[in-house]
């Protein structure tokens, strides 16, 4: 198998597995001392600026300019992914363990498949519907609505909503007037998301609550360098060098890495409830991803008449 794709492909894939899985742990460390939206604003302002400085001089600069339409779309895209995605996730991880958060974020492919069917009429294979049912069963078991529950339900619900927003933002990006160069699009969205996060942080008074400890600064630096630069660069390269079916395996490997590291580094408990619910979610994601390649005639959807263009940017669905 390794010789089939090459050593570089597997090194890049392992990098995405470990880096994106570990970002949940880094985020849990950061928000011990830094307010969630402030820390995420710093992350995305720095990452977005650096990506743009690197990417803007490269590629089709004349035909792929940034205008008002591109900036407006980037604020929508960045708002959905980085404010209601990363910002809400950081807020929730104040009460939700990193491993549980990773399992909940791992539902993004489930929401993507469901929303793509409802909005754009993309028909799903029978296996995908079975996978979605497994995913919802796993979520219900993790929330334990009729029992005492071992997970903060409000925080968990916010993470599920953030995963839904990430899915909506990803689908929005397919037809949005974003820059065509992936790194430019990602950098602009990250910068716009960082601006929105900073505005909310200022209004809410988070700046006065910040305690810039060594561990918080190092954790934030890890999120910026490892999560946004190294992990994202490896992911973008993989999209061009390996089959999407192989690249998409990060969706069900990252939660496993996060749960293991949460137990090892943060001392988080791994309960039977987590294992059963997590297994259901991971099976769901695996089934949906495997069923995604089926060629089916498009059905009716809310926006089925619109023809989405190629995805303008690829960003990491992680912490």
Short account of what is shown:
With 319 residues, the chain is mainly alpha-helical. It contains 13 helices and no strands.
How are the SSEs ordered, and which strands pair?
Blueprint: H1 2-5, H2 7-30, H3 36-55, H4 68-92, H5 98-105, H6 108-120, H7 126-143, H8 153-175, H9 182-204, H10 214-241, H11 244-247, H12 250-265, H13 272-291
Helix pairs in contact: 2-5, 2-10, 2-12, 3-4, 3-9, 3-10, 4-8, 4-9, 5-8, 5-12, 6-8, 7-13, 12-13
Descriptive account of the structure:
With 319 residues, the protein is mostly helical. The chain has helices at residues 2-5, 7-30, 36-55, 68-92, 98-105, 108-120, 126-143, 153-175, 182-204, 214-241, 244-247, 250-265, 272-291. The model is unreliable at 305-316 (pLDDT under 50).
The total strand number stands at 0
Residues in β-strands, percent: under 5%
Q: Which term fits the overall shape?
A: globular
Mean pLDDT equals 85
Number of helices, where a helix is a run of at least 4 consecutive DSSP H or I residues:
13
Low-confidence parts, pLDDT < 50 over ≥5 residues? 305-316
- Using only C-alpha atoms, the radius of gyration works out to 19 Å
N-to-C SSE series?
Answer: HHHHHHHHHHHHH
Percent helix = over 70%
Query: What structural class results from the helix and strand content?
Result: mainly alpha
State the distance separating the first and last CA atoms.
30 Å
Main beta-sheet annotation: none
